[in-house]
Amino acid sequence: MNTYPFVIIISILLVIMWAYAAISKLLYLSTFKEALATQVFPEWIGKILVWVLPSSELAIAGLLLFQKTQILGMYASFGLMLLFSLYVGGAVYNIYERTPCACGGLFTKLGWKKHFRVNIFFTILSIIGIILLESGR
């Protein structure tokens, strides 16, 4: 069975998600900076992440656009989504001393539990993309 159409669909969904995440952060940069300043990690990390996160998200979206770099994009997507899911999971399960605020965009309106479900969905989608691409080699 040709699985590549499924890879294309997964890639498109991930590109849309990563592009939206990056562009919303960059369009509302001051809000994003404020959100990062209220997170549970040290402030200096937030000052780095304000540029690293949107850049990484755009880079992953770019990797997913081309067949030659799709597998790298899938692995990067999985890695970053796993990190995001662990962080959001910490907020959902009250691991932190205080609840961090959401980083903007649609996720501000969703709340932590729905945000966590969305993250898990995209993490699993990345895993499926990796499996399909690796099996097609």
Describe the structure in your own words.
This protein has one domain (4-135). The mean pLDDT is 90. It has helices at residues 4-27, 29-37, 43-64, 70-92, 106-110, 112-135. The protein starts with a helix and ends with a helix. It is mostly helical. It contains 6 helices and no strands.
Mean pLDDT: 90
**What multimeric state do the chains show?**
single chain
Question: Could you spell the SSE succession in H and E letters?
Answer: HHHHHH
Overall body shape: globular
Top keywords for this entry?
mainly alpha; 137 residues; single chain; 0% strand; globular
List the helices and strands and how they pair.
Elements: H1 4-27, H2 29-37, H3 43-64, H4 70-92, H5 106-110, H6 112-135
Quick structural summary:
By secondary structure, the chain is mainly alpha-helical.
